[in-house]
Amino acid sequence: MGRNNYFLENDHFVDHHLECPYVNDHSFPSKVDSHDDDEDGPQKHRIFWESQKFLLQEILDQCNNSNSSNLREQIKRHIEVVRDSNFCRCTDKNLRGCNKCLRQATIKHLCSKGFNAYLCTSKWKKTHKIPGGTHEYIEVVAYTQVRKKQVAFLVELGFGDEFRVAKACDEYHELIGVLPEIYVGKAEHLNAIVRVVCEAAKKSAEEKKIHMGPWRKRDFMLMKWSASSGRRRCLDYPTSDKLRTNPTVQNSLNVVTSTVGLA
Predict the structure, then answer these.
(1) What DSSP string describes 96-162?
(2) 134: which residues sit within 8 A by CB, 6+ positions away?
(3) CA distances, 137 to each of 77, 117, 173 (Å)
(4) b/e per residue, 84-122, with b = 16+ CB within 10 A?
């Protein structure tokens, strides 16, 4: 069965209209230190955690309230259909319900419903700052109607689990508690979330006086969803390259979208 091509009605959705103050390194505050140096410890502690909660909630609100929410909600509903099915094919009963099988089954299901869905694998080498590693996630591609520009939506099925730290402070656990279990959205919003949460993880480690592993630091976490940025390695379910890249509508679903930004 050929894939339908999901279209975004408004070309203003593209990246150059995305105004997120936390997307780029140069615009993201490495720490919240706007308070006076003579403030006591408890006051600094309170201001930091309130600031991180505000930043994170602002990003999530803008992501959830964007006009792409129609498409995002459809993707989530299809994921729930898969989760309620007998999707796992692992022979080891201890692995039943594994995320690897869930990703593959989700991609197959989305493709059958006309979505351009792919399995992306990020791979990076060890450096003096971070260990090497790999990470898999899903990407769904839609098109702007006028210019036929591709717009990618990243799908992480266990998003909240990616940030769990066993010995973190209560404020950190409360912060990541607002993260969605399943993330569906643009890479810019995901990267902004990573920067906020990783800064919070660093602060938590300092307060608890424990070592923070390099796999919990920002640079490592950002690499997990890096396959779309020039080093994409997508494993496509059976559909020809011609169908995958052709923006011609067969039975297109119009999804109203407009500028996504953080005011």
Answers:
(1) TT-HHHHHHHHHHHHHHTT-EEEEEEEEE---SSS--EEEEEEEEEEEETTT--EEEEEEETTTGGG
(2) 121, 122, 123, 124
(3) 17, 11, 24
(4) eeebbeeeeeeeeeebebbbbbbbebbbebbbbbbbbeb
- Written as six digits, the tokens of 24 are 């780029």
Give me the torsion for CA of 44, 48, 50, 56, rounded to 10°: 180
Chain mean position to CA 53: 18
Instruction: Report CA torsion sign: 183, 188, 191, 63.
Output: negative
Strands (E), the chain: 7-8, 116-124, 133-144, 150-156, 183-185, 234-236, 254-255
Strand 234-236, strand 116-124: pairing = antiparallel
Cα distance between residue 166 and residue 73, in whole Å? 31
- Token pair for residue 148? 């036929």
Give the global pTM. 0.74
The separation between CA 13 and the C-alpha centre of its own chain, rounded to angstroms, equals: 17
Top mean pLDDT of 59-63, 227-231, 255-259 is at: 59-63
Summarised one tens digit per residue, pLDDT across range 172-218 is 999 999 999 999 999 999 999 999 999 999 999 999 999 888 888 99
* Beta-strand pair 7-8/133-144: parallel
Q: What are phi and psi of 247, to 5 degrees?
A: -85, 5
Q: What is the DSSP letter of 177?
A: T
